[in-house]
Amino acid sequence: MPDTDIVIAWVNGQDPKHAKKRAKFLQEGPAQETLATKARRFSDNEEIRYNLRSIRNHAPWVRKIWIITDDQFPPSIDQELAREHNIFTVDHRVIYRGFEGCLPVFNSLAIETMLWRIPELAEQFIYCNDDMLLSGMTKETDFFVDGKVVLRGNWADLTDKEISFHASNQLAAAQLYGYDLTRFFGTPHVHYPMLRSVLEEAFESLKPEFARNMAFRFRNRSQFWPISVHAYQAMRTDRAVGYSGKPDWRHFSVRFCKTASAEDLITRLEIIRDHKVKMTCVNYFEAVQAKVPDALSYISEATGPMAPFERPDKVADVKGGGLLAAV
């Protein structure tokens, strides 16, 4: 089986240096959509601690972990020990080499445009955000089969449906490949298996579109979602297979985190705590914790024992979960 890496996009928006830089470009540039600039989008609740912990415990077959950052390093992780466990940071300047005029960037859609440019990145890699966690034991064939990506998702017709910010980005990607609202491949918001060569090929064949996408400092409704572009390109070139099993993920969407009752949140937290699914994403942890104060204990149990590269400072004991970061 070929080597497989994991790439994680992470930012600590509370870092005064980063917050000051972000505010500067918000003031100097054109007006941005509120959804693209909310502080919550850049918040760091130390999800990266549990993300990395979950990979160590539930995906020991991963070769290297690359954390894409803007001159930062997660304070909950010991940098020297992280390197010993094949965890490395990649600065935006590295993936934007030759396109430095687009920096600084505060936009995941733009950053995802450049993922394939990580030096030494394996051909097979799994991309995720810092709020995505592995909640059960995985194997490589959950993500790749015979050199092809395993695509989770389904074709849908969005005619007469409300088009959210995220859906508009997916639609922009679909339109690049001749699809529209009537035939639209929706991808669940969990770990994304990708092939470096597929994204590079898309970049080469859609250079003007990629150049535009990478240049937005903040997210924009007119951008395309590179993850969707990768999916269509992989399907078009016969490097994708559909996932046919029962859903092995749970997504705590922003809407669900906001509107679900404490009881409903606990039910879903119990599913991931008990390892009944392999992947999860908690998009708005602050809202979950406000209703379920011990939500971190569920996440800690879901992700497994504390990893040796975690820093134990600013932590508290939680029943059944070992050490947890104070938030």
From TrEMBL:
Sequence ranges assigned to domain Stealth protein CR2 conserved region in this UniProt record: 41-146
UniProt keyword list: Exopolysaccharide synthesis, Transferase
InterPro entries hit by this protein: Stealth, Stealth_CR1, Stealth_CR2
Ranges for domain Stealth protein CR1 conserved region: 5-26
GO biological process: polysaccharide biosynthetic process
GO molecular function, one term: transferase activity, transferring phosphorus-containing groups
Pfam families referenced in this protein's UniProt entry, alphabetically: Stealth_CR1, Stealth_CR2
PANTHER family in UniProt: N-ACETYLGLUCOSAMINE-1-PHOSPHOTRANSFERASE SUBUNITS ALPHA_BETA, PTHR24045
Family under the similarity heading: Belongs to the stealth family.
Protein name: Capsular biosynthesis protein
